[in-house]
Amino acid sequence: MKFLNFNKRWKKIKRTLTTFTICVLLALLAGAGLPISQMVQSLLTAGSIEVMEENSSLEDSNMAQASLLEQIRSNDKLSRVFLEKNYVCGTETINLGNFTPEEMITLVKQHPGWSGYIEAENDLVVQETVNDLSPHCKENAYMSLDKEGNLTLFEGKPKEEKAIRTFFQLDVGSMETSLPAGVLEQLQNGIRVQDIEEYNSVLSTFGDYAVAPVGNIVD
Q1: Where do the structural domains in the chain lie, given as residue ranges?
Q2: DSSP annotation string for 97-162
Q3: Whose CA, among 6, 100, 146, 163, lies 20 to 30 Å from 176?
Q4: Who has greater pLDDT, 188 or 41?
């Protein structure tokens, strides 16, 4: 796909520019007499914050699963289990079959990343987050612009106007002057995304031209 080839070249240029910028900053800091070790320390501090956020997310996940296990133990009417797979794009529900409450507890413990809820008294719905597109999205997803100029994920071709999710408004004027000829037209016609790599590639490329974030459209 021409767009993806362009995106790879563009990312390479961005990496080169980033490296050059860092070198210039280091030279300026050294010229100003500011110890470079202070910059390293600030980077380490930023890294520590990221680790703390990851640990907090893990703790929240553990608490959610502990709550789910308690709900299972307190409900002896449970009999069926459904797996709800929440993808980056799309949702898929699978009937896992009949389980005793004890088997449900074992199943949930075997999957630390699962959360869930009880539905209609006797159905346990366990939820899994999947960093990928659902099979349906892989066959039907397009990235394009909506009528307001927002980067939007569509089910089917954009002209059908079946929006799945809206990301952010784009500065179309800047795109016209900055991007190679044909890229904006390709986006307007719809860029086919068939996997998570293409999905992230489109977001990364056009994210540089975001004006402001907007709310998501519910599936």
Answers
A1: 57-131, 137-213
A2: EE--HHHHHHHHHT-TT-EEEEETTTEEEEEEEEEEE-HHHHHHEEEEE-TTSEEEEEES-GGG--
A3: 163
A4: 188
